[in-house]
């Protein structure tokens, strides 16, 4: 027997194992098996494994090809096999009845099984295995089959469940040998299907994997099948075998399989009928009174209301005190009336079109939220029920609800979800179609985002608007997305109220027991169209023909209970008439209502916050110097030695630099942020910072959470240890989601005004994927729903050559959504003008340029008498810019937030000589500041920073316009003309100018031209645009400017050579940090580990020590062997001589891996103080010295990815007077400003 014949035998046995008995294929397979066995036995072969001793792998194929040419040329048995003559085969070789049993093997298969790991004979053959021990193998195999059948029902029984009340989708009942109709077919039982047609009276011992027997250990096959059918193939389909926890699966199995576990008492059935009467009666009443109004009724899925009420009853009995409900529009009015007990008259008044007495735009009635605290009569306990307001974007309320629930847990000290429970009601199409569902599901088990189990209820209409499920999803069920978190899913027929109530009980108990998500899929239908004015027969004619003939669930259940004797017909009619009277009384009362208040529908009231508070009072935001020192010292100190915490060496260098800054009483961006957080924590304000990589910071500047270098999960957060009675500080890296996480933080901020909640984007334009949350919740939430929120969004933003997707935070979008009127000049003479302006706008938009202003801005969020969202376009390169520093005096009690920072230099002191008044915002100020010095225009050009863009600071702008009456007015921005703040500030500048009757000037634009892309990805184009911007503001460099710059270059080169010769050529690797000498304390940026491809290289500090390399002379272009980064421009076109000269200065302060120039950072614009290469003439043969590659900036990669011979130089600003204009001062122009370089 050759190998191919052995393969045929294997394939035949597989065919027999598939259960294809009594089919043509089975008979052919059996014949092939016997033919091969007969041939083998004829040759004296009795060990089937010895069939592999053949040598022709093409034996069967050769026989088949030979048979095709001449059927008589092969043996008769092969002719029968190849011809498929089943009638002849069946007649000649009838199959015994025993062969219809699964796992029954022919006798020859049991007699000669080879011992695969036994002793070898002397001839090298394998010794025969001992004969099988005597046993009832048939009985054992039968029990194995029974166990497999039970597992099949448990795993796949839901596929045959009767879930569709319309009967469109459902199992086909098949008649068994005893005449019983059963749902389970091949789809469920698979290869064991034929076994259920055997002797049904056979008794079997039940395995431990099932509980269908209760106290019985033995059941007949018929009873086993009947019980499994009732449990898994009835009106409930249970998906739970995907859960990997044996404890959870056993718990679910116990609840469903134990006999009598799903039975209800008469009183419970009567309560279900009463609640179903109210649910259906409310929809019928609205349909009668407002037949043409949109209300998005619940008809067809009325049982959802009793289900939710059962969840509320069960949860409050188990100790839950607050229940939060998030849902879309369908059924919302019914939930408000029957779950929250919102007065029906208030709901009906929304249909009358009444005028509101308070401000705001309001929303349609089926989007409104509510907050009710009432007595639950079933448990006699108080419960707070909140329905969160939701826009028409269906599932986007999910993360908002989860965040609000998490915040309530924090406020109540609920660390396991025992007092607060979220419920989310989904639609079938949206649950499977909207990605925010998946994002929200993945928050369920994250430590900083979990709500310890959410109950998901799907109102399954089996249609999405007008789209059938077969065209709206690829999965079998709309709930398959819940399997990603191993949530059990209970599908239930909406026309079986008792089954629905049992599912509601089980999911509530499951959530209480395991603190995990769980899903109920209530499969019903939609009796009307998408709304009551739609005609569904246009698109679903067959479905709605069935719906028109179908009795309502209430009528079906009432008939059932009347038949069972639970209620009488008169009792049922009394229930209906009583609720109709309640609705009629409410209708009469609603007609007396003459106006409405939006505030009566608020879903997040803050009791006690507004009472007795002066909303127009702006509390001071400064703190004492002692507080700053305490926070700064703790923030810059490594973990205590007793903790035996081993921190990264780069972290220790950063902490040392922070320590020096504290000693010098100066703060960079990270220290200013820490001052804000720490001072609020001291005052008892909870601070929560969330987002991607926020613990370290995208640009490696924050480092709030330190990680032990030798032990996993050992971290240290210094801001948690500032004061013994401080408020908690939560800093948490989020999942890679913007939409769900931002929605979560917005919901968190809704719960309490006594918290600073911050979401930081990894890059500013990452908010693109959260636009729905921004538009429909944050920007307009207060206007629509009278709901305040103080959430803070930090969006890294600046044009630094990082490409289209890592540059812009889309400032223009936020400014466009601001609701302040650009054509109305406010009353700036009002003493409370600033507070009134803040209170009247929908949010605050800032583009800050100093750490002190960030400090005051964050503290102002909490100190205001109201709450507004804050959108701050945080910097990237400014995080370590040597001029972006603030002295401690800018944080003290006498300081405050500066909406506008005027020019305090020579131009500000002599305004009559100023020719240009340039308004700007954010990081571009520092570029303009240096370029103004290079062009020697410090006395003729005034630079004014607008720190707060919205609301627009009309009063301060008017003061600046009056201060410079003869100056040309310019608005300079680094963004493109159709982006940034230009379109927002232009009409407001015009309004401010028109206020003055003697004013004839207008403001002009200076910046990049319009573009559909936020930024270019080409380095050459980036710098070309930058040069055009600078030229449009300051003009060309004069010959005197160029000469001065050339002299600076020569002096710097000479100094660099002298320093290089005076120092040894090599040093121990541990002496200087990588990138240059150790920076002077407090003067350089902080260090940190480099991170490539995620942040501008300018903001990343080198970590590893590296010996200083000797200065080398570099030609004007890279050498042939030098490797240049793709996407970078050729060095000769981009590098100016002054930059090259500054790169050679060894004593400059640390710039953390950035471009050596202290005035510019890698990825940002070229150093403004230096003449462009094209403008500065020099000899082509003149060599320049470089420490790093000639390209002035890199695009986010670590220095290790560049040329091996390159090294960044950490430098100090030149000490000689020639390096700077004698009339120039630092941006703040403070005489004792510690941020100013020493001379």
TrEMBL record:
Residues 115-130, 1164-1181 have a biased composition (Low complexity). CDD domains: TPP_E1_OGDC_like. It is an enzyme of class 1 (oxidoreductase). One of its GO terms (cellular component) is oxoglutarate dehydrogenase complex. Residues 1066-1082 have a biased composition (Pro residues). It comes from the Eukaryota. Keywords: Glycolysis, Magnesium, Metal-binding, Mitochondrion, Oxidoreductase, Thiamine pyrophosphate, Transit peptide. Residues 667-881 form the Transketolase-like pyrimidine-binding domain. It is found in: Mitochondrion. Its EC number is 1.2.4.2. The keyword Mitochondrion applies. GO terms for biological process: glycolytic process; tricarboxylic acid cycle. Residues 1048-1060, 1204-1239 have a biased composition (Basic and acidic residues). Residues 107-138, 1048-1239 are annotated as: Disordered. The keyword Iron does not apply. Belongs to the alpha-ketoglutarate dehydrogenase family. The 2-oxoglutarate dehydrogenase complex catalyzes the overall conversion of 2-oxoglutarate to succinyl-CoA and CO(2). It contains multiple copies of three enzymatic components: 2-oxoglutarate dehydrogenase (E1), dihydrolipoamide succinyltransferase (E2) and lipoamide dehydrogenase (E3). NCBIfam families: 2oxo_dh_E1, PRK09404.1, PRK12270.1. This is 2-oxoglutarate dehydrogenase, mitochondrial. It comes from Drosophila yakuba (Fruit fly).
């Amino acid at each position: 027997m050759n190998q191919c014949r052995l393969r045929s035998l294997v394939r035949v046995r597989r065919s027999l194992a598939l259960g294809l008995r009594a089919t043509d294929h089975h008979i052919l397979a059996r014949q092939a098996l016997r033919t091969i066995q007969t041939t083998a036995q004829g040759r004296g072969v009795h060990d089937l494994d010895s069939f592999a001793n053949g040598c022709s792998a093409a034996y069967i194929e050769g026989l088949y090809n030979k048979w095709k040419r001449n059927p008589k040329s092969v043996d008769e048995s092969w002719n029968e096999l190849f011809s498929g003559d089943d009638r002849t085969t069946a007649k000649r070789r009838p199959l015994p009845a025993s062969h219809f049993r699964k796992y029954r093997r022919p006798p020859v298969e049991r007699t000669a099984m080879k011992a695969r790991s036994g002793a070898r004979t002397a001839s090298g053959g394998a010794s025969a295995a001992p004969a099988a021990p005597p046993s009832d193998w048939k009985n054992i195999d039968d029990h194995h089959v029974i166990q497999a059948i039970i597992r099949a029902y448990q795993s796949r029984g839901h596929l045959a469940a009767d879930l569709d009340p319309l009967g469109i989708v459902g199992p086909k009942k098949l008649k068994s040998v005893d005449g019983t109709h059963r749902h389970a077919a091949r789809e469920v039982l698979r290869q064991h299907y034929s076994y259920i047609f055997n002797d049904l009276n056979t008794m079997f011992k039940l395995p431990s994997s099932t509980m269908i027997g209760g106290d019985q250990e033995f059941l007949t096959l018929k009873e086993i099948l009947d019980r499994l059918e009732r449990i898994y193939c009835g009106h409930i389909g249970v998906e739970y075998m995907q859960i990997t926890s044996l404890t959870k699966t056993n718990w679910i199995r116990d609840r469903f399989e134990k006999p009598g576990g799903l039975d209800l008492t008469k009183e419970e059935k009567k309560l279900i009928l009463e609640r179903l009467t109210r649910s259906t009666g409310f929809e019928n009443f609205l349909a009668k009174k407002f037949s043409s109004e949109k209300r998005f009724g619940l008809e067809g899925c009325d049982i959802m209301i009793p289900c939710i009420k059962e969840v509320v009853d069960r949860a409050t009995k188990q100790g839950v005190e607050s229940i939060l409900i998030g849902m879309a529009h369908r059924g919302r009015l019914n939930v408000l009336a029957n779950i929250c007990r919102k007065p029906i008259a208030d709901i009906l008044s929304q249909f009358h079109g009444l005028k509101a007495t308070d401000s705001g735009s309001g929303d349609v009635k089926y989007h409104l939220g509510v907050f009710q605290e009432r007595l639950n009569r079933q448990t006699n306990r108080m419960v707070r029920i909140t329905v969160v307001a939701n826009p028409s974007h269906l599932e986007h309320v999910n993360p908002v609800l989860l965040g609000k629930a998490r915040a309530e847990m924090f406020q109540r000290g609920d660390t396991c979800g025992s007092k607060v429970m979220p419920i989310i009601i989904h639609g079938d199409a949206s649950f499977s179609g909207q990605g925010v569902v998946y994002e929200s599901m993945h928050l369920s088990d994250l430590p900083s985002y979990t709500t310890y189990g959410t109950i998901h209820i799907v109102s399954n209409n089996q249609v999405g608007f007008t789209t059938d499920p077969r065209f709206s999803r690829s999965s079998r069920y709309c709930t398959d997305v819940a399997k990603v978190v191993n949530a059990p899913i209970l599908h239930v027929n909406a026309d079986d109220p008792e089954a629905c109530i049992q599912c509601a009980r089980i999911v509530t108990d499951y959530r209480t027991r395991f603190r995990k998500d769980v899903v109920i899929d209530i499969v019903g239908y939609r009796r009307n169209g998408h709304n009551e004015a739609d005609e569904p027969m246009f698109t679903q004619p067959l479905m709605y023909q069935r719906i028109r003939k179908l009795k309502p669930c209430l009528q079906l259940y009432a008939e059932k209970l009347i038949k069972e004797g639970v209620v009488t017909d008169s009792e049922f009619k009394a229930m209906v008439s009583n609720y109709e009277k309640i609705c009629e009384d409410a209708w009469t009362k609603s007609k007396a209502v003459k106006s409405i208040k939006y505030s009566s529908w608020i879903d997040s009231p803050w009791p006690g916050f507004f009472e007795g508070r002066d909303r127009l009072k702006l509390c001071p935001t400064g703190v004492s110097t002692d507080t700053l020192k305490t926070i700064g010292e703790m923030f810059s100190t490594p973990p205590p030695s007793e903790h035996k915490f081993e921190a990264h060496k780069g972290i220790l260098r950063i902490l040392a630099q922070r320590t020096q800054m504290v000693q010098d009483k100066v703060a960079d961006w990270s220290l200013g942020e820490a001052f804000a957080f720490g001072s609020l924590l001291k005052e008892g304000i909870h601070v929560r910072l969330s987002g991607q990589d926020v613990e370290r910071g995208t640009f490696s500047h924050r480092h709030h959470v330190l990680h032990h270098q030798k032990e996993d999960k050992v971290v240290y957060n210094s801001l948690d240890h500032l004061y013994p009675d401080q408020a908690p500080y939560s800093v948490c890296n989020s999942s890679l989601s913007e939409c769900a996480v931002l929605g979560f933080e917005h919901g968190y901020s809704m719960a309490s005004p006594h918290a600073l909640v911050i979401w930081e984007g990894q890059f500013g334009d990452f908010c693109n994927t959260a636009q729905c949350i921004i538009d429909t919740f944050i920007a307009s939430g207060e206007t629509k729903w009278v709901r305040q929120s103080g959430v803070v969004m930090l969006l890294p933003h600046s044009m630094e050559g990082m490409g289209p997707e890592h540059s812009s935070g889309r400032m223009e979008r936020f400014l466009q959504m601001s609701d302040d009127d650009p054509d109305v000049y406010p009353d700036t003479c009002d003493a409370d003008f600033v507070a009134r302006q803040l209170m009247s706008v929908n949010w605050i938009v800032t583009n800050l340029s100093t750490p002190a202003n960030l400090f005051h801005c964050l503290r102002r969020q909490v100190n205001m008498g109201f709450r507004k969202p804050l959108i701050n376009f945080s910097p990237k390169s400014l995080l370590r810019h040597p001029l972006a520093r603030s002295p401690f005096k800018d944080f003290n009690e006498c300081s405050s937030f500066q909406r506008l920072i005027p020019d305090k230099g020579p131009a500000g002191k002599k305004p009559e000589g100023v020719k240009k008044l340039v308004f700007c915002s954010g990081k571009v100020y520092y570029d303009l500041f240096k370029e103004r010095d290079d062009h020697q225009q410090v006395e003729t050009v005034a630079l004014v920073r607008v720190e707060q863009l919205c609301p627009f600071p009309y009063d301060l702008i008017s003061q600046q316009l009056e201060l410079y009456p003869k100056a040309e007015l310019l608005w300079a921005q680094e963004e493109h003309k159709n982006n940034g703040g230009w379109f927002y500030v232009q009409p407001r500048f015009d309004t401010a100018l028109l206020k003055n009757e003697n004013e004839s000037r207008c403001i002009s634009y200076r910046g990049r031209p319009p573009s559909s892309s936020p930024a270019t990805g080409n380095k050459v184009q980036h710098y070309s645009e930058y040069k055009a911007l600078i030229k449009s503001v300051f003009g060309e460099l004069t010959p005197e400017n160029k000469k001065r710059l050339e002299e600076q270059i020569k002096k710097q080169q000479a100094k660099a050579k002298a320093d290089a010769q005076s120092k040894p050529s090599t040093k121990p690797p541990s002496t200087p940090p990588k990138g240059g000498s150790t920076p002077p304390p407090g003067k350089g940026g902080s260090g940190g580990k480099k991170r490539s491809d995620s942040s501008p290289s300018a903001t990343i500090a080198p970590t590893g020590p590296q010996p200083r390399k000797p200065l080398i002379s570099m030609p004007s272009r890279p050498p042939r062997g030098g490797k240049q980064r793709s996407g970078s421009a050729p060095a000769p076109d981009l590098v100016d001589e002054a930059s090259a000269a500054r790169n050679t200065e060894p004593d400059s302060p640390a710039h953390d891996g950035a471009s050596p120039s202290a005035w510019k950072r890698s990825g940002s614009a070229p150093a403004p103080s230096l003449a462009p290469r094209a403008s500065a003439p020099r000899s082509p043969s003149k060599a320049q010295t470089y420490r790093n590659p000639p390209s002035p900036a890199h695009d986010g990669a670590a220095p290790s990815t560049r040329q091996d011979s390159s090294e960044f130089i950490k430098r100090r600003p030149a000490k000689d007077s020639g390096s700077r204009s004698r009339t120039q001062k630092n941006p703040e122009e403070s005489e004792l400003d510690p941020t100013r370089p020493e001379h």
